[in-house]
Amino acid sequence: MNIQLLPADKLTADQIAAWVEIQRSEPALDSPYFRPEFTRAVAAVRGDVEVGVLEEHGEPVGFFPFQRSPGNVALPVGGKMSDFHGLVARKDLRWEPRELLRGCRLAAWRFDHLIASQSPPQPYHWHVAPSPYVDLSRGWEGYRAEQLAVRPEWFKRAERKLRQADREAGPLRVELESDNPAVFQYMLKWKRRQYQRTGATDVLAFDWTVALLERVRVAKSEGFSGVTSALYMGGVLTAVMLSIRSHGVLHAWFSAYHPDFAQLSPGIVFWMKLLQAYPQIGVRRIDLGKGPEKYKTRLMSAAIDVAEGAVDLRPMAGFLRRNCRHAYDWTRQSPLRRPLLKPGRIIRRLIESRSFRQ
């Protein structure tokens, strides 16, 4: 197998067509994150995105998109902005992670949302976690019946909140695909306020992340598009969500809510309205992304496993990173967890902030 290394914006039309054909043929790769359009959107706002093109008999059979960080370490395209990543190749393709790194002139590959079902990197997994999704393949009524059977109390409470919001602040109206740039700007403003209020890393403080969201927002093609959805209560914009879509799969990406409507639970009201409406435009699955947020476990139908780990050609670096991860996992489960909680959060925010810098 030969590996051709290219900047993401230098892929040929034939290579892009081969990428799309592989992505469409493999159910495990149906997320919009695996589309070439997402990789090219990130490459348009960053200068470190490359693609390893795996070839057999002169034909492309796989694509490895990545960001090259200092020290020739491969990171996911989009970094923390990516909720799924991995090699875009057919399931039966035989490949070896260490050979892939050598072919791409890399020293290591770090991942945190790798599709866990890809078998070659499995020996390098440190931790596997669920990434929840909502199954809308049977429409709203099918999903509602499923949730009433599994989580009847919570779901009935959510429906009551929907009726309350409509009664007290309504009428409620959802715009599934808004092209209004002002709606997008409100989402950015509310999201930044949320980061400030919670002390989380302000992802939107970096020029390239906002530029990426703007680029994706206006993307409209058959296989990849940005979807900006908005909720209005009594004519007032109350909630906004930017998602990315590939055919019937939609990934909820960024969302924010009007702080003055917090008492009406705009988040869950918005979700209930979206889940009723999205099947009407052909959405059969909504990926929610890995994370501890309670709404994800409450809305989910099932989950896709994603893995965190690393492949490292530098023996000592790999040993140290692996053991640091083991120490971190042990601390989280030990009596030391509480006294280390605050400094741990500070360190984590510093690391996350650094990861967003170009």
**CATH fold-type name of the largest domain:** Aminopeptidase
How many β-strand runs? 13
Low-confidence stretches: none
As a percent range, the share of helical residues equals 40-55%
Task: State the secondary-structure class.
Answer: alpha+beta
Strand count, sense and barrel status of the largest sheet are: 13 strands, mixed
Number of helices: 11
| Count of structural domains | 2
Mean pLDDT: 91
- Oligomer state of the chains in this structure: single chain
The CATH C-level class name of the largest domain:
Alpha Beta
Cα radius of gyration in angstroms: 21 Å
Element-level helix/strand string: EHHEEEEHEEHHEHHEEEHEHEHH
Principal-axis shape equals globular
Please identify, by name, the CATH architecture of the largest domain: 3-Layer(aba) Sandwich
Distance from N terminus to C terminus (CA atoms, Å) equals: 32 Å
Strand percent estimate: 25-35%
